[in-house]
Protein 1
Amino acid sequence: MVHIRNQTRNAAQPEDGSFPVLPHPDKAPEEDGRGRFTPGPWEYIPSNEHHGPYVAGPWGGDICDCYTMSNPDQPSTRNGGISRPIHFQHEMADANARLIAAAPEMYEALKKAREFIANGVEMGVIRMPDASTPDPAHDTLPAIDAALKAGAPA
């Protein structure tokens, strides 16, 4: 189970969060930064004796906590409850947090790869296999498009 707590703020919002960020009247949400994931860089924070691994955004707010507790509905033992971290999942939790922290950079790299491939095919520098030839190249751009759509504004 991954616990997600988005506590980040918009870059245009002051530190104290005193006013709501209104949409730009001339821009679509994806152009003014709304409706997308929190901009990077995201930082992987490894687990230690006080907390499990987590990912922090550019303003220090949590992107997500990546740990599994024995009783997720109960307070932790540190807070007087009965819930304890499940230690055998520690290695997976750290790996998950590292992967999540890399998401903004991977998203941008995927956009560049898509543009490179599409331009190369269009200019004839990259030659696609014949449509009747079974080849994973036929699935590459649709797979990239699907992945980018998953991270795009709703």
Protein 2
Amino acid sequence: MRRTGLLALAIAAACNNSFSGDDPVPVDAGTGDGSADDGDTRSDGGSDAAEAGPTSCVVAQPFSATGWQFLGDATLSGTTAILTPLAQDKKGGVAWGTRHSFGRMNATYQIRIKHAAGESPADGLAFVFVDSKAPPTLGAGGLTWGACQLPGGYAVVVDTDPDQPGDGMRLKLVSVASPTCLDALAFAPLGDLANGEPHTVQVDANAGTIRVDVDGATVLTHTIAGWSTYEGWFGFTAATGVLDEEAAVISATIAFPTEPPCP
């Protein structure tokens, strides 16, 4: 298992240019320095990522045994999805199985990650949007968050593993069809998101341009080369290896502005 406090993000969508402020400089894999603009904090304190018109399809159902599918070691605590318990060698996820088009998507979700006292954080969690007609399933575990080796698509990863090169947590954008997801399409450094406190992540995808905000500040913007719009399912996954880490998603609102109202 890796131990790189990275925030890994892998997304398959394009960023909404309506966000306020100057865009940060995109950071692509292979640059070696992992640097990125710290981004702009929204002046109005609002959330662009979950905005949708009255005719849009918006999935805002609280986590429950109805609608959401719980996979692997994932459990439900009230209306919070616990993807992995505070234990080693666990892998879990929660998925919305209805197929959607990911050409245009706005997602806002609140996460909470905590690790065992006196230990380093484990691996983090991923928001996946998968190119597949098959039912939702989990990918490989351990340092790949249960998100890799899926049929296709992308993931935005909060990588909390502290022992990878570059030190510190990272936000990553990865291709989930990759055998390891270790070669991120883009990445950016993050603060400590494994502190047991709630943190809000916003993902705006627009025709292959992905913009990610964390706690109101833009962290990463990247345009995926050769993007082609696809349909599939979305969800959240996490996995642990030799370290303990509880990864949870408290709430999620996913909007598809170009789709008619959800059934």
Protein 3
Amino acid sequence: MLETTCGKGDSGAKFGHTVESPAVNYDSGENMVRNVLLFGLGMALLAGSAAAQNLVHNGSFATGDFTNWTTHTCGAGCGAQGWSVQTSIPADPGTPPPGATAAALTACVGAPCNDPVSGDTITQTLTTVAGQTYTLSFYYDGGSNSSTGTTELQVLWNGTAVSGGTIVNATTNTWKQYTFTVTATGASTVLEFSGRQDPAVLYLTGISVTAGGPIATPIPGTLLLMIAGLAGLGLYLLFGKQRLSQRS
């Protein structure tokens, strides 16, 4: 603001006029850039949170059925075949699934139960990113006499048995969490479990698949968010510098 004094009257009062110089409102521009930057960072955080979400739907069978899953019942060479959902879980020791109130089970008898094509299976197709690694986890209880009879749970990732994911004769009546690292090769991946429990029944619940680790190429949306964030930061610094120059 420029103040010009034209003169004084006899009373000592000040006569004059004030001239307002036009000022550039850097505050509004700075606030806008700051808001854009914060919005970009917030979206990036949301993207990261979404990436960590469970890709498996109804992984604890809370619906009381196989919603989101596809079941296949073993045919020739199998007995007591067929998966079902039990709306309670055995109160067995070990590492029980936290918060789970239901489990998938099968009592299929015979080696053909674990055939990935014609056996006793449940499958779900997941939306994945080629080259992305994922953490696959589930809770398994082999049931009664599972360590002495012929009991086998097998997990397959897009038709291929997961390394270490063929669990034979697990400890009797004991919950255990199993965790594996898998990599997607395409935009969709089939997660599959096959089960055989000759003496009794096996239980499966708490199934999850979450993104983790590097990917072969950046996700376009995430890359754009990163660029927007860096651009916003640059503009923020630029406006701040201009504001300091104006004040000086």
Protein 4
Amino acid sequence: MRAALVLALALVAPALAQNAPAVGDAAPDFTARTLDGGTIRLADLRGRHVLLEFWATWCAPCVASAPRLAALYDEHPRDRFEIVGVALDSPPAVRAFVAEHGHGWPQVVEPNRAGRPVTDLYGVRGYPTSVLVGPGGTVVYRGEGVGSLEAVLVEALSDRADTEGL
């Protein structure tokens, strides 16, 4: 039974990755319920850069990047930049983590592998995964971790980038 599950995941995972939007592709729209009970729709955030941050509380690199994400969030105005967290975790675990780390951005919680539509839509296979969507709705960055994202974000939010449509 376990071998069949591993084989099924091995066959499905590459298909998800192949369908993942790449840099230059249109970012797939979604509507999802947030941790606070609201609803968020990617299309409603058009006109600003949106960082989709796929993470989990049990992911050591995700936890390590939390302070850097919080700093990025605080450095940029909401009318130009927003973060949407997509957590593969339980609502209580995400709620506690967000409270402890002061993450004020919207969080979508996808608590189990059977019900993670946003994660699947973006073909996420590892954590953390960052997808930066430009103001026009195209993917301008996709990667794991926050490292190179910071440089891309600074460039994307510069006045020059705004005139070039990044």
